[in-house]
Design goal:
- It is a single chain.
- With 187 residues, this protein is mainly beta.
- Helices cover 6% and strands 60% of the residues.
- It is elongated, with a radius of gyration of 18 Å.
Length: 187
């Protein structure tokens, strides 16, 4: 659905030639807590680039690293995730955004392991999809830097590619903090 909305915005709106600081580089880290199954703790970090297509919309890609731990799972994964951001409020000193993206992540071990939650004994796989969506805000702290915070929902699932018996999935909610950098010659 976000891709359809982004496509409509690009088709039916004009380019803002006054838009500056189109490209940014960011890094963040955070924590989310699983809310079913083995109730995993998920620590994640992301590094990415973001490009403003319009004053109220951007597209980006991030490299993501995740570590999952609980009484059954203890594994790390590495992946890539393209995303869109919509900025209903956009000022030089403060930006509020909605973000949605999906990519792939590869874990060192099968994830999630069987939790027995309500009798669920399915075991996940190493390769999973990794959709993430949420809201965030950027606060200017220096000429080329902004502090960024976000509240996120993270999901890992292989989309039943290996069959439903191999797709217990993982869902968690949490937060992240980080920095966004705007290169100086960036028009």
């Amino acid at each position: 659905m976000p891709a359809v909305a982004a496509g409509a915005v690009l088709i039916f709106t004009s380019v803002d030639s006054t838009l500056t600081h189109k490209l940014s580089i960011y890094g963040d880290f955070g924590y989310t807590k699983g809310y079913y199954g083995s109730f995993s703790d998920l620590f994640h970090s992301n590094v990415g680039i973001n490009f403003m297509l319009r004053k109220y919309m951007s597209v980006g890609i991030e490299i993501t690293q995740a570590h999952v731990s609980d009484n059954i799972n203890n594994t790390s994964g590495f992946g890539i995730r393209p995303f869109f951001r919509f900025y209903p409020y956009y000022r030089d000193s403060f930006k509020f955004f909605f973000s949605s993206g999906a990519g792939l992540i590869y874990f060192a071990d099968n994830f999630p392991k069987p939790s027995g939650f309500f009798g669920d004994m399915r075991e996940g796989t190493r390769l999973n999809g990794c959709p993430k969506y949420g809201i965030g805000a950027e606060f200017k702290i220096y000429n080329s830097f902004m502090f960024v915070v976000g509240i996120w929902h993270a999901h890992f699932s292989n989309g039943n590619y290996y069959g439903s018996e191999r797709n217990p999935g993982h869902d968690s909610n949490g937060f992240s903090v980080g920095l966004t950098y705007f290169p100086t010659n960036n028009r």
